[in-house]
Amino acid sequence: MNRATSTTMELPARALARLIARGESLGPLSGVPVTIKECLDVAGTPSTFGVLSRRTHRAQSDDAHVARLKAAGAIIVGKTNVAQLLAFVETDNPVYGKTCNPWNRDRIAGGSSGGEGAIIAAGGVPLGLGTDIGGSVRYPAAFCGIASLKPTAGRCEDRGRYSFHPGQRAIASQVGVLARHVDDVAAGLDAINGGPPIPDWRSVDMTRMRVGFYLEDGVFASSTAIRRSVAEAAEVLKDAGATVIPWQPPETARAFAMAYGILGADGMQWFRDILQGGPAHPSVNLLLMLGGKPRAMLNAMAAVAGMLGQASLARSLAAAPRACQRIGILGAGRSTGSLPRDIPGRARPM
Length: 350
Known about the structure:
alpha/beta, Amidase signature (AS) enzymes, 6-stranded mixed beta sheet, 3-stranded parallel beta sheet, 13 strands, about 30% helix, globular
């Protein structure tokens, strides 16, 4: 499956025994083996973001969220694969290659935290850290059949560095947690929490919750299985006492275009600077190509794609990076399940 990019520390049982022998206090995650998304610094290990020119990089210190996990007693056993520049929903790059879905090697594990999704789903570790600006812990969880959470903006800040331009703050990337069980996600979030204390989720009074749900977002058609899952989740919340109402996201296509425009407002020049002329994944090349085209040309390309019956491609072109120069909500993190590998032109911002 090609999940891990590096293995790092001693065996968890040995590390735990050493702490006990020294009489040190044990944290809430003491002895728990965890993995870390490759882009997050772990001292002495590479953080390449899948960029070949960074293959000799070694971090000098731990990322703040990694340090918090260690302080809680977790044992870092390795780092996991990423989408190049964390820029698309498949985990593949010129440094480490491609990560497959652990349930079906002919399908993808999602991205950009697909290495985490795959290794957790396969039982390699119970818990891991990823990052998420537009789905990067949620896509792998949906594709691999596990749980994840992107924290509220500002709680677990991720500065990005070698992904989408760190200067843009309109869509903030966060460090998120992936695990096989919701309880484990909650424990991980407690450990890395950079904001106010988080109440026990079990203490929430569901009768005070007002939850909107939707089955279609108006951009991508949902699969039957996704529609059924969301409807079943809505019923569970209703049975628990929540007020559950149908709701439709407003102007989804416009929001999609705005997101592309914000993340690529520089015409993807930041990506070019990071790559330094080195090899780029085909999905990154597509973003670079779209980012370099004037709006009029992209509109013309979208119109042609629409006339040829390529509605999804037309929407992507219309929402491409030049576009901006561009209560609870229940919905699926993804409109379909895991996609087959090697579909040309698959590129979505993370």
